[in-house]
Structure formats: structure tokens, C-alpha cells
């Protein structure tokens, strides 16, 4: 039996600032996890990952991350690693962690 597809988003790191970024529905990048475009099929996920990989001048190391969708269809990290990445660096109190 085939494994059921888990919704995914495309994430990477900003080439110049190092921040975690997420591919949006408009084809741009956001630092807010909730702005990411949820992908609901493997074909869609593969296609958008390919789009991200062609943006090497902006994004480093794009990959697909599993997400859970809330009642409004907004993505939220499904794994601890992605939740940790979404909060920013942990070495000192700044940026997204200051909020």
C-alpha cells in the first residue's frame, strides 16, 4: 500500500543573510513560515522544489519540509527541526526570537 502524501512546503536559507526562508504562492520568498505555499501532491512538490533550485542567487539548499495545516489552510511545522528553524538562531536573543 502506498504511503499517504503529507503536505509540504519548500524551505531554504537566504544566500545573503542566512535566514530561513519559505517559498510563497507568488514564487517569492518569505521569512514567515505561515506565508509558505502548502503543496498537496508529490508532483506539485517536485515542481516547486525545481523552481526553488533555480533560484541559487537567492536561496541556498532548498528542500521539502513536512507541515500540518491549520483550520485556515496555513502551514505549521510538523517536526521539531522545522519548528526550531522557524524561530531563528538560538545562539543569542535577537531577530525572530526577540518577539
Please bin the fraction of helical residues. Answer: 10-25%
**Rg calculated over all Cα atoms:** 13 Å
Order of helices and strands: EEEHEEH
Query: Any idea how many domains?
Result: 1
Strand composition percent: 25-35%
Shape: globular
How do the strands of the widest beta sheet line up side by side?
Answer: 3-2-1-4-5
Distance between the termini: 44 Å
Please give the number of β-strands. 5
Q: Class by helix and strand content?
A: alpha+beta
Short structural description:
This protein is α+β, with helices and mostly antiparallel strands and 99 residues long. It has helices spanning 42-53, 80-86; strands spanning 8-14, 20-23, 29-30, 59-69, 75-77. It has one domain (8-98).
Amino acid at each position: 500500500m502506498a504511503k499517504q502524501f503529507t503536505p509540504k512546503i519548500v524551505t531554504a536559507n537566504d544566500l545573503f543573510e542566512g535566514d530561513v526562508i519559505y517559498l510563497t504562492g507568488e514564487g517569492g520568498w518569505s521569512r514567515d513560515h505561515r506565508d509558505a505555499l502548502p503543496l498537496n501532491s508529490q508532483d506539485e512538490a517536485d515542481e516547486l522544489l525545481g523552481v526553488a533550485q533555480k533560484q541559487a542567487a537567492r536561496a541556498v539548499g532548498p528542500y521539502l519540509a513536512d507541515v500540518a495545516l491549520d483550520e485556515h489552510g496555513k502551514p505549521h511545522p510538523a517536526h521539531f527541526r522545522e519548528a526550531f528553524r522557524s524561530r531563528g538562531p538560538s545562539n543569542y536573543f535577537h531577530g525572530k526570537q526577540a518577539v
